[in-house]
Amino acid sequence: MEFIKNLRDVIRREVRLIRQRPIYLISSVAVMAFCSIFFLTLLRDGQPKDLPVGIVDYDNSSVSRNFTRQLDATQTCNTVQFSSFKEAREAMQTGKVSAICVIPDNMAEDIQANRRPVFTFYVNTLYFVGGTFAYKTILTMVNLTGGAVKREVLRAKGVNEDAIMGRIQPIRIDAHQIGNSTANYSVYLNSVLLPGILELSIILVLVYSLGAELKYGTSRHLMQKAGGSMGAAVLGKLIPYTLLFWSIGIFMDLLLYHWCRFPIEGSIWNMFAGTMVFVLSCEAVAITIIGLLPVLRDAISIAAIYSVLGFSLTGFTFPVEAMAPYIQGLAAAFPLRHYYMFYIQEAMYGTGFAGWHMEIVHLLLFLFVPLISIRRLEKAYVFQNFPRK
Amino acid sequence: MKKLFSFIRRWWSDFYAIMTHELKMIFSDSGVMVIFFLAGLAYPVIYNLIYANGSVDEMPIAVVDLSGSAESRSFTRKLDATREVDVAYRCTDMEEAERLMKEQKIRGIVMFPKDFDEKLARMEQATISTYADMSSFLYYKNLTMSMNYVMLDEARDIQMERYAAAGYAGEAAVQLVDALPYEENMPYNRTFAYSIFFLSAALMIVLQQTMFYGVSMLAGTMREENRSFAVMPDGLKGRGITRVIAGRGTAYWLIYIILGVYVACLIPYIFGLPQRGEFRDIFTLLMFYIPACVMFSFAFSSVIARRETVFVLFLFFSPVCLFLTGFSWPMESFPAFWRYFAYIFPSTFAARGFINLNTAGADLYMIRPEIIGLTVQTIVYYILSCISIYVENKIIHIKEKKSGSASGQFSTEVANSSNGF
User: Fold this and answer.
1) What is the 3-state secondary structure (H, E, C) of chain A?
2) In order of start, what are the domains of chain A with their CATH numbers?
3) A-contacting residues of B 184-243, CB under 8 Å?
4) What ipTM score was computed for the predicted complex, to two decimals?
């Protein structure tokens, strides 16, 4: 009973602190709102549109103009004419064009005369998405142009249309994208990036909140409110933030899978559950960091370095299995990694509990990690024997 | 004339004193040292270790061969031989392959339908179905590219046979099959290595972000301890704003020009990243980038009243800045608002300039728009920093008068706690 009363006092104190200092709400609610708006609007097209592609047309025939027009008509590419290769190359070196197509002199004539002119293209591979998509589109257009030439020849020979397709393109690839059928870049990135921002926000806000008690010497007041019980103190401080971050997390899931209609194979209720466990394990990481380093200024720097690294080590951009073996193990130290694995199972494959239960176990294991540092934090709270500056 | 000389001498000695004072502050602050030197030196190394391989090779896939024909086996063999994928499993049905996919043992499925060889024999168009794991775009890219290579290659062989059957042989068949041969070139980054995309942009971000966090931490500390640099002009009879900014700025500039050379020249050298730029060109870019970062940090650190709040409030800007460089999602596809928003950050220009110089082998003349952008930022943020010092100085004086305290020590504390976050 005593514990409950102490807990209630600490919660009341914490709610008052959150209301007094805007930093807590700004760095949780406002940061998540800004990042959601930023990343969802930045990538709203899903696939890049109107990538500038330089055309150096030495041929200037109806065939070459037709090629340029058709490339321009695709959603992905926008053609830009250059009079010389040098100009086009400089535009590519300065990132102004994603690719260059060089149409050789007399191409149309050479095709007619069966002299097999060589069409050359260059792809700017320094910009990931732009380069890949421009490459894919140009490759298709070149094959279509070549195909059109063959079609003409075969038609002239009186071959029927079905047989023509069999000759021009004997094998067709029917590509399916599992979990993201339209290869939407926004779906792919935001599904993990936004939870990553949430992780960053949780860790920083909690390290700051727990560390500020030390820095401003208010920890004794906190312990007094908690009736000397470290459990009541930490739990009481955490409960308001847990509720806050759970709401943000659920709002984020709703935003992604309901309002923005990101594809989800499983159920959104499972996503809610996963997100809530994810929030708890991020909180555990924050307690561990401030406990190991009970000096706010150092703990916050370490927390910052840790949470930025989390994005890379999660492996949603560059897969973990392609990293060096000694780096791969590190990935497990980030809650975001386990959330990502959970997300693949639930949202992409819809496997349900059977598929992701181990990931939830991993996330729950994080909750035991603070045990190694909680005593140290308690000593710091009680004795205030760590440097304040 | 004499007046001018004495002014210059005075200016120089103030400037020098402020600079050495700032350097002392930096080197005696463990938190700032962690950010400048641990993060600044270690991040580039860590990122290089994480992305050491650059590309995903031999990605495991499963083949479901329902046709079991010579053609499908030949296709599978060629697919297995590509650098991108490795045919790790051969499944008898789709269920088995799907199960492997869900267990994440494979990253893609290639399925040959029952009638694959029959259609080929009848000279019709045969279909192959592929299923890509979309949990990472690199899986999708690997499966698409390797399938494309093998498909075009196989298609060529089949076409040759078909034209031969139709009475075209030798050169005539080649002319039909390959009416328009093409040559693809991927200069700068032949294998689409992730390390090259990511690192070129990230290296510049590391410089700007670590400097901003370090500067803000120090500014916050000084404001907490009521010795904000905004009171410095008082000692210089209120006319020393330029000296304060130049002196403090030079301290950071000195540290960061060294870190900059380390990040932009030494790191690519150590880790074998492309180095197509001239050293003097990259150094010149740094000479424009570092001052822009210093002024940017000064201008924005004026909203930081307490030491630790900079991370809590602004750490999320690191991934935001990274995306604003356009290294991943192309700049051309940005909504207009974000394209202009990107101009706030020096890293936008610097990363683009650095990618073009160092990886694409451009020269200084070609990156002049970026250099101009950085120069404009330096000037604008310099003016903003001056204004913010002037305003902060006035606020401190007003608070002092209000509290009537002679020392002003106590009153600035009030100013900070009521203004700051």
Assistant:
1) CHHHHHHHHHHHHHHHHHHHCCHHHHHHHHHHHHHHHHHHHHCCCCCCCCEEEEEEECCCCHHHHHHHHHHHHCCCEEEEEECCHHHHHHHHHCCCCCEEEEECCCHHHHHHCCCCCCEEEEECCCCHHHHHHHHHHHHHHHHHHHHHHHHHHHHHCCCCHHHHHHHHCCEEEEEEEECCCCCCHHHHHHHHHHHHHHHHHHHHHHHHHHHHHHHCCCHHHHHHHCCCCHHHHHHHHHHHHHHHHHHHHHHHHHHHHHHCCCCCCCCHHHHHHHHHHHHHHHHHHHHHHHHHCCCHHHHHHHHHHHHHHHHHHCCCCCCHHHCCHHHHHHHHHCHHHHHHHHHHHHHHHCCCHHHHHHHHHHHHHHHHHHHHCHHHHHHHHHHCCCCCC
2) 2-43+184-383 (no CATH), 51-168 (3.40.1710.10)
3) 184-190, 192, 194, 196-198, 200, 213, 217, 221
4) 0.90
